[in-house]
TrEMBL record:
Pathway: Cofactor biosynthesis; Fe-Mo cofactor biosynthesis
Functional note: This protein may play a role in the biosynthesis of the prosthetic group of nitrogenase (FeMo cofactor).
Keyword Transmembrane helix tagged: no
Family: Belongs to the NifD/NifK/NifE/NifN family.
Keyword Transcription among record annotations: no
Listed InterPro entries: ChlB/BchB/BchZ, Nase/OxRdtase_comp1, Nase_comp1_CS, Nase_Mo-Fe_CF
Chain residue ranges for the region called Disordered: 1-20
GO molecular function ontology, one term from the record: nitrogenase activity
Name assigned to this protein: Nitrogenase iron-molybdenum cofactor biosynthesis protein NifN
Originating species: Methanobacterium formicicum (strain DSM 3637 / PP1)
Residues forming coiled coils: none
Start and end residues of each Nitrogenase/oxidoreductase component domain: 36-458
Lineage of origin: Archaea, Methanobacteriati, Methanobacteriota, Methanomada group, Methanobacteria
Gene3D superfamilies: Nitrogenase molybdenum iron protein domain, Nitrogenase Molybdenum-iron Protein, subunit B, domain 4
GO biological processes: protein-containing complex assembly
């Protein structure tokens, strides 16, 4: 991924007590804490059954996406490219785009083609929608058949990160596919926009909705496509996932719930265009956020009690919070990642009695700063907040502040080694461990899993030596 001046984090913010809003532009990003826009777009598209992402740009962009996605999800992932070259940059990418769509349609028969632009094609100003309309008409005249739906998303990485890319793509999918509602088809289905989550977390959300007997449409569902079993067949296009028919029906649903504040454009669109009520909730990590999610679902069902399995998991989570308190209480933590993930995690860390000392996101967001302030004013913590920074900024703050634990993706490993602190891996990408697609942190059960893993990371780093001494003593 290329770091461009527009990637430049506009400011670094610390909490009110140590406010340090520099608003200075940085002219180099060292180890960005974010991915580029098409990466988020591709992840959203991979949750649609049979969809094929097509990056209109040079081949390196699609290679970069595939490389990151394959090593994180450990799945064969296909991302096509219009393979722009020197001459097509000069004369425009129309021919390449048309050829790519023709080839994909003929050879792979996707249910949908998602064309995402790149830095290059945005800079030369290709009229992607115009080219596609022209292609659609000429294809119909020639072949007397319609093309599959083709959606376009403008995703230059100099104006945003994968977080915006994901959000824009969900909105673009709904804009082009959702049909006007019919009063006779209105139903009690809940649209869920989960945000860019691990497949295991999407599965957990579906499990919760099943327990509560709520029919749902997940926008989009990566639980199968990015976590596929080995069964001898190799799928070129995502199998499983949200169907086009489901997306078309989203306008008839009772409500849209968005579980990530930075992925709410699709829900806002459905509300504005079709009057589908929309509620944005925090990512249901930890006790309070999950309580809020479950009570929202209960209110939609008009019931006060929750299923016994969830009641039990909530109790187990409470029990585990008490059990692990001795190891976690007062531990200083530095956390970095996507804004919604970090917000959810910070809320849970405070429930564990930990001290979020440095809170960082690579995607600059005013919502992020405001929400962090809301969490910390309840606890009285005074963290350094790095809003739109990079891992270099984070490392400098870690050196100054000193923390017991680092939480984030694999890119933080070097900081952890240099500072001799453990790194708890969560987020994207995780390429130096296996099982990233199975990391489950949502709901009571996922939070319980997260709490156990995180506490064991602390125990392994800070208590194991004492443990060995104890075992040796017992052996003697
Ligand atoms: S879209 Fe832009 S930032 Fe992303 S890989 Fe391509 S050139 Fe690099």
């Amino acid at each position: 991924m290329h770091s461009t001046p527009e990637n430049i984090p506009p400011d670094k913010v610390t909490s009110p007590g140590k406010s340090l809003e520099t608003n200075k532009k940085k002219f180099a990003v060292i180890n960005p804490c974010r991915m580029c826009q098409p990466m988020g777009a591709v992840q959203a598209l991979l949750g649609i059954e049979g969809a094929m992402p097509l990056i209109h740009g040079s081949q390196g962009c699609s290679t970069y996406m595939r490389f990151q996605l394959c090593r994180h999800f450990r799945e064969p992932i296909n991302v096509s490219s219009t393979s722009m070259s020197e001459s097509t940059v000069v004369y425009g990418g129309e021919k390449n785009l048309i050829k790519a769509m023709e080839t994909m349609n003929l050879q792979y028969h996707p249910t949908l083609i998602g064309v995402t632009s790149s830095c290059l094609t945005e800079t030369i100003g290709d009229d992607v929608d115009g080219i596609i309309n022209k292609f659609r008409e000429s294809h119909f005249k020639l072949n007397k058949e319609e093309l599959p739906p083709i959606i376009t998303v403008s995703t230059p990485s100099y104006t945003g990160s994968h977080v915006e890319g994901y959000d824009k793509t969900i909105k673009a999918i709904l804009e082009s596919l959702a049909l006007p509602p019919k009063s006779e088809d209105k139903n009690d289905v809940i649209n869920i926009i989960p945000g860019n989550l691990a497949p295991a977390d999407v599965e957990e959300i579906k499990h919760i909705l099943d327990l509560m007997e709520l029919d749902n449409i997940i926008l989009t569902d990566t639980s199968e496509s990015l976590h596929a079993p080995l069964n001898g067949s190799i799928e070129f296009l995502p199998s499983g996932g949200t169907t086009l028919d489901e997306i078309r029906r989203t306008s008839n649903s009772k409500i849209t719930l968005t579980l990530s504040k930075h992925a709410d454009s699709g829900g806002i669109f459905l509300k504005k265009r079709f009057g589908v009520p929309h509620v944005t909730l925090p990512l249901p990590v930890g006790l309070e956020n999950t309580d809020q999610f479950i009570s929202t679902l209960s209110s939609l069902k008009d019931v006060e009690s929750i299923p016994p399995e969830m009641e039990r998991d909530r109790g187990r989570l409470l029990d585990a919070l008490v059990d692990s308190q001795a190891y976690n209480y007062g531990r200083k933590v530095a956390i970095y990642g996507d804004p919604d993930l970090v917000l959810g995690m910070v809320s849970f860390l405070t429930e564990m009695g930990m001290e979020p000392a440095i809170i960082a996101t690579g995607t600059h967001s005013s919502k992020f700063s405001a929400d962090i302030q809301k969490i910390i004013c309840k606890t009285g913590h005074d963290p350094v907040i790095i809003n739109g920074g990079d891992l270099y900024d984070l490392h400098q703050e870690v050196k100054k502040t000193g923390v017991d634990l680092l939480i984030g993706n694999s890119y933080g490993a070097r900081v952890a080694v240099e500072e001799n602190i453990p790194l708890f891996r969560v987020g994207f990408p995780i390429f130096d461990r296996v099982g990233a697609q199975r990391i489950r942190i949502l709901g009571y059960s996922g939070s319980l899993n997260l709490l156990d893993q995180l506490t064991n990371t602390i125990i392994q780093h800070y208590y194991d030596e004492a443990g060995y001494e104890l075992i040796e003593g017992m052996e003697n």
